[in-house]
Specification:
The complex is a heterodimer.
Chain A lengths: L2 E3 H15 L3 E5 L26 H5 L4 E3 L4 H13 L3 E8 L7 H8 L2 H4 L9 E6 L14 H4 L6 E3 L4 H13 L4 E6 L6 E3 L13 E4 L4 E5 L3 H12 L6 E5 L2 E3 L3 H11 L2 E4 L8 H12 L9 E3 L10 H7 L3 H12 L1
Parallel strand pairs in A: 2-3, 2-4, 4-5, 5-7, 6-7, 10-11, 10-13, 13-14
Antiparallel strand pairs in A: 1-8, 6-12, 9-11
Chain B lengths: L4 H26 L14 H8 L7 E3 L5 H6 L4 H8 L33 H15 L5 E6 L6 H13 L3 E7 L2 E2 L2 E2 H4 L5 H6 L5 E5 L3 H16 L5 E6 L19 H8 L2 H9 L7 H24 L20
Parallel strand pairs in B: 1-2, 2-3, 3-7, 6-7
Antiparallel strand pairs in B: 4-5
The chains are: A alpha/beta, B alpha/beta.
Chain lengths: 335, 325
């Protein structure tokens, strides 16, 4: 099977979805690029991370639509088109920019169906590049998915590898509810085996990345690889762990997490977001509420500190949880 | 005016229906029968009807917090709407939305909207779908003088021009964004010119005169439907009630409300306009009045008797499907 980067896997999914269904279109800032420019190279950009590369050439200006820098209008346009039967895939360049289009996502797109008494559907996908690792500082490094998980009506997807990214994005495009799709930008260049053909992965079904007996580790997005590395390193000490990648935080595969915690009695939750009201706290609370009797040790959270993301490479390295910190924490719950 | 007799009768009936729906809603709210925050459209009826009489069910509208009139004008079921205001499970939105979220997608009503200027970006999306599908539909967003100062409104207008989509922006200036006059809140002297600065034509109407709005809206909708990109309608109008039911209206001048009801009533204006024209008689309009009153009575009786929602319904309709398949 061919190896593909996450960027290429997502790009392939977009090409295939658009070829399969003419109601699918992409819209966002520079998703084609160079519109109106003297170079005449319209379509050469394909998104600042190259994820929408080639779509303009393949599908033309009506289906690969560049917009002004107007995030509210981008999300609103996707939501409105979806309400009348299209399947838009909008790109918001950085997840941090949710700050300028929150209303259209939360109060509009996410609530139509409920407020309208179940008589509407809004099959829109909004893609975001999320997370740290690029010294992009406070306004271009946040995950944001932990915030969006709290809003009913939205589905939240966080792929941790190229294979999952393709299958989850194709599911997102076919899904009849609005989906927020967070692409950890530190993983765009990471490759794994990805089939050429189309396939979907269901939402709300976690992946068991490692299987073991001693500790349950739950990790999201960029943290899945680091947690796997930590677990692999601990094998030499005779420690074995379940590593669960929920893949979607809404819906969340609570059963997979609870069944594992019932078996191991120990839980470490890892995410790169700050700790308060985030996914690590949410899953810790889930275990405290529904698996308390099985716990042999306190639940531990590994997260960024309660601080904005810093710029300096040394500071950012200290900010985002690393393999060592995950290892130490796993040992702590076994002590 | 080249409106047929049927069109005239229908337009009057629509305006009268909105008027009586709102006046009855006001009374029932004051009686404690309707919960929540309600914003009445009384006085502005000619705007909604003058625009929507150009639309069919495949065209879309999106409305505002003051949305009852737009929804009725676009064909929403009046009884279902009254049940919705009552919070009944039989309401148009099963009691999940209430006054500020009345919607009927099948009829092209993409919803009233509780967020000022929440609608224009969504309407541009509907217009974009029409452009991609090349189906000749238009998408109308209703806004007020409050919404034109929101960034989302600017973003939507600019994007509509950039993408050259069939979006129509209807701005109803009722002079007050909540409790603040337009002379304070809009920094420039000429809102029409400011709007046209986005790069589309804006047609001006007297919002108390159905015929004036119908004429201006016809030009704007024709412009958009013909593939020329967005257009606007700017109507000066007046609301006869406060921003919300219960608003003490400290911002009104002495006699302002009496003057509005006396001199800016679209129903009176309509009757004066057709009187003696030999097409529609006062008796016919009186008969419509009686039918509308009966319809509103029926709606209220139905709403009072309609099934109440149950606690199990709280979590229904959040998603089409949630959890693994």
């Amino acid at each position: 099977m061919p190896e593909k980067t996450m960027r290429d896997a997502i790009n392939e999914a977009l090409h295939q979805a658009m070829a399969e269904d003419d109601s699918v279109f992409v819209i966002g800032e520079d998703v084609a690029g160079c519109n109106g420019s003297p170079s005449g190279k319209v379509g050469e950009v394909g998104g600042v991370f190259g994820v929408t590369s080639g779509l303009y050439k393949a599908f033309g200006p009506d289906r690969c639509i560049d917009t002004p820098i107007s995030e509210s209008a981008i999300v609103g346009a996707a939501a409105g088109a979806a309400l009348v039967g299209m399947r838009p895939v909008a790109e918001i360049m950085f997840a941090d920019f949710i700050g300028v289009c929150m209303d259209q996502i939360v109060n509009q797109m996410g609530k139509f169906r409920y407020m309208f008494g179940g008589k509407s559907r809004c099959p829109a996908v909004i893609r975001f590049a999320s997370g740290g690792g690029f010294s992009a500082a406070g306004q271009h490094s946040q995950s944001m998915y932990q915030v969006m998980t709290s809003f009913p009506g939205l589905k939240v997807v966080i792929p941790s590898n190229a294979y999952d990214a393709k299958g989850l994005l194709l599911q997102a495009i076919r899904d009849d509810d609005p989906v927020l799709f967070f692409e950890p930008k530190a993983l765009y260049q990471e490759a794994c085996e990805v089939p050429d053909e189309m396939y979907t992965l269901p939402f709300g079904e976690a992946a068991f990345v490692r299987e073991g007996d001693d500790v349950t580790v739950v990790a999201f997005g960029q943290m899945v690889n680091r947690a796997a590395a930590a677990i692999d390193a601990l094998e030499a000490d005779g420690i074995s762990c379940d590593l669960i990648d929920p893949r979607t935080s809404s819906p969340l595969d609570e059963d997979a997490i609870l069944e594992s915690v019932e078996a191991t009695g120990r839980l470490v939750v890892v995410d790169e977001s700050p700790p308060r009201c985030g996914l690590t706290a949410d899953i810790a609370a889930l275990a405290a509420d529904r698996a308390f009797h099985a716990l042999k040790a306190p639940v531990k959270q590994v997260s960024a500190p309660h601080s904005p993301t810093p710029f300096s490479p040394e500071l950012e390295a200290a900010y985002i949880p690393d393999v060592e910190k995950i290892k130490t924490t796993i040992k702590e719950v076994l002590a | 005016m080249n409106l047929s007799r049927d069109q005239l009768l229908r337009a009057y009936r629509q305006m009268k229906t909105i008027r009586e729906f709102e006046e009855r809603a006001h009374a029932e709210i004051m009686n404690g029968q309707i919960a929540g925050f309600t914003h009445l459209y009384t006085g502005q009826e000619a705007n909604a009807v003058g625009v929507c009489e150009h639309l069919d069910h495949q065209d879309t509208i999106i409305s505002t917090h003051r949305g009852h009139g737009h929804c009725i004008a676009k064909g929403a079921d009046v009884i279902g709407m009254m049940k919705e205001l009552w919070g009944s499970a039989e309401g148009l939105c099963k009691g999940k939305g209430g006054s500020m979220h009345v919607a009927d997608i099948e009829k092209g009503i993409l919803g009233a909207n509780g967020i000022v200027a929440g609608g224009p970006p969504i309407s541009v999306g509907s217009a974009l779908a029409a452009k991609i599908r090349k189906n000749g539909r238009v998408a109308v967003s209703f806004s007020g003088d409050g919404s034109v100062n929101q960034g989302t409104c600017f973003e939507a207008m600019n994007l509509a021009v950039v993408l050259k989509v069939p979006a129509v922006f209807v701005i109803e200036n009722n002079y007050y964004s909540e409790h603040t006059n337009i002379s304070y809140a809009v920094g420039c002297d000429d809102l029409k010119a400011r709007t046209e600065g986005f790069g589309f034509p804006v047609f001006v109407a007297d919002g108390a005169d159905f015929f004036s709005v119908y004429d201006a809206a016809g030009k704007a909708i024709e412009h958009a439907r013909s593939g020329n990109g967005p257009a606007g309608v700017f109507a000066e109008t007046g609301r006869f009630h406060g921003h919300f039911v219960g608003d003490p209206q400290y911002y009104r001048a002495d006699g302002e409300l009496d003057d509005l009801r006396e001199n800016s009533c679209c129903l009176k204006n309509f009757r004066a306009r057709v009187d003696g024209g030999g097409v529609v008689s006062a008796e016919e309009l009186d008969a419509i009045d009686a039918e509308v009153m009966a319809l509103i009575d029926e709606a209220v009786s139905a709403a009072r008797a309609a099934a109440r929602p149950t606690a199990e319904q709280v979590t229904e309709d959040v998603y089409i499907q949630y959890g693994s398949a």
